[in-house]
């Protein structure tokens, strides 16, 4: 079994997601809170200009810039495209990562609670999912784009040998909630504890399987003939991230007061419901299906 | 009794407060929803460039530009200072307003529910408070800066002969919640109904007195020696807008995990708790005291 010794924790990949940014400040002062005997942990503010501007990004979403071909193209020169290349100097290439583990901290305006987003596949992630659910049962575990090769992946969390995203909400952009920060702090602590126990081959007995949600697709808000939003998420669905949405359930309401129900045959589990950052692209939410992670699987 | 016939409804005074902006769009298509026999109602998007940029403002807070001396100073020329002068051409001067009533629609990220903010004094507002509480008991009525003369007032809502602010939350910036929009729509409808009944001298019997909250002061988040925020609103207070805060109750928690209690002798009723727009100035919340409005008072 490979050891996982070097860890980079990044916050502020989106400049108006404050929990990670202020946790970095906290850990800068209280580094003992993230130190573990077998780990060398570093922290970095990923998008300092976006934080200074209190925006998600200046020119482009930083967390969509880490595909290998994009990093290799020097003509892509806006701020986040440049910052991604600077981060890849620090983190190493995907082929030769300098860190064994990259932890990327995010917030959402959606009512998703504390979430562990798995974006790659490896038996280690299955064990981590089991450990996190054992220690913090309210964590929602999500699998997204984990079929992609690392080179194809555009997420910062794929710049380590291993990596995950911690995503916690609900928190308005540019705002800091105590409960949301505390969830992120606790979940990050469990992940570091897991890595320590994993390195020492001292994991406790874990649940054999845990529940997770696998991304299916993003869906758009209803638009009018001019391409402008013609409605919003129905209040019966608002805040119900990771709860079942069945055929016929209210999904949207238009500005003509028409209720639009969910029309799919498959019961789905939406998340990122009404996420403010997705308004640019008129996205309303992501749909997921419930899956089971076999904790001791070798896949 | 003066009649109130001309009404201007403004939305998007802050460009990332979406409920009013999308209600204007809705009413543009369904104007019957805001028409009343004795009223001539117009609507206007107050800060179109801030809405296009999905920001509260471009250069300065538009809702702080309506003092008479500021409007008279042509050297104050940034975007919002200019837009305020453009709006004063449309709405008339404070001395000679073109509208009998100005209704300004706002959102907050705080858990304030539907609120009616009274920023001037007149017996008509007391009757309106009684009518609104009769029809929609969950409305919180707030009195703020109502001792100021109109000329001294910097709020857009003071540009009519009469005027109020409708403030509804919680809603993240740049986001549209069905429940929050519905509250704003209902409260606006009750205000228009009230004006119609007031004009016709047909108000129903109102409660003799209603509860309200009078602004005392804004308070700052704890800051460190560098003037940076050293903590956040404690989770025991988060979301408890308009609920009592007593001496010794947890108010803040620092990044050193120290709980800072409220130390005032007077029990207060905070609102705008952890409002994202107030981070620029490190404000944590406003404190109010509970007061009673005598609905039939002639003051």
TrEMBL record, chains A, B:
Protein's recorded name: Aspartoacylase
Species assigned in the record: Celerinatantimonas diazotrophica
GO molecular function term, any single one: metal ion binding
Keyword Isomerase listed: no
Cellular component annotations (GO), alphabetically ordered: cytosol
Catalytic residue positions: 167
Domain Succinylglutamate desuccinylase/Aspartoacylase catalytic residue range list: 4-194
SUPFAM superfamilies: Zn-dependent exopeptidases (SSF53187)
Keyword tags: Hydrolase, Metal-binding, Zinc
Record has Secreted as a keyword: no
């Amino acid at each position: 079994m490979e050891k996982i010794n070097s860890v980079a924790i990044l916050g502020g990949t989106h400049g108006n997601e404050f929990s990670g940014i202020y946790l970095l400040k906290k850990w800068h002062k209280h580094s003992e809170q993230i130190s573990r005997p077998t780990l060398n942990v570093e922290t970095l503010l990923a998008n300092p200009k976006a934080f200074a501007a209190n925006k998600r990004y200046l020119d482009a979403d930083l967390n969509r810039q880490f595909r290998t071909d994009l990093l290799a193209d020097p003509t892509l020169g806006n701020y986040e495209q440049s910052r991604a290349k600077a981060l890849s100097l620090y983190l190493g290439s995907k082929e030769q990562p300098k860190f064994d583990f990259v932890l990327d901290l995010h917030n959402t305006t959606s009512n998703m609670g504390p979430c562990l987003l798995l974006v790659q596949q490896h038996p280690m992630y299955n064990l981590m999912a089991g450990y996190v659910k054992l220690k913090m049962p309210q964590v929602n575990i999500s699998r997204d784009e984990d079929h992609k090769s690392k080179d194809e992946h555009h997420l910062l969390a794929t710049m380590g040998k291993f990596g995950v995203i911690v995503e916690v909400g609900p928190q308005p952009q540019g705002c800091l909630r105590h409960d949301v920060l505390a969830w992120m702090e606790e979940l990050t602590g469990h992940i570091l504890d897991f890595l320590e126990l994993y390195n020492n081959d001292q994991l406790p007995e874990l649940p054999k399987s845990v529940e997770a949600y696998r991304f299916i697709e993003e869906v758009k808000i209803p638009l009018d003939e001019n391409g402008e939003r013609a409605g919003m998420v129905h209040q019966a669905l608002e805040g119900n991230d990771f709860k079942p949405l069945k055929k016929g359930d209210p999904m949207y309401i238009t500005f003509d007061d028409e209720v639009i129900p969910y029309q799919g045959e498959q019961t789905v589990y939406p998340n990122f419901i009404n996420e403010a950052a997705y308004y640019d692209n008129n996205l309303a939410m992501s749909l997921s299906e419930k899956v089971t992670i076999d904790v001791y699987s070798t896949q």
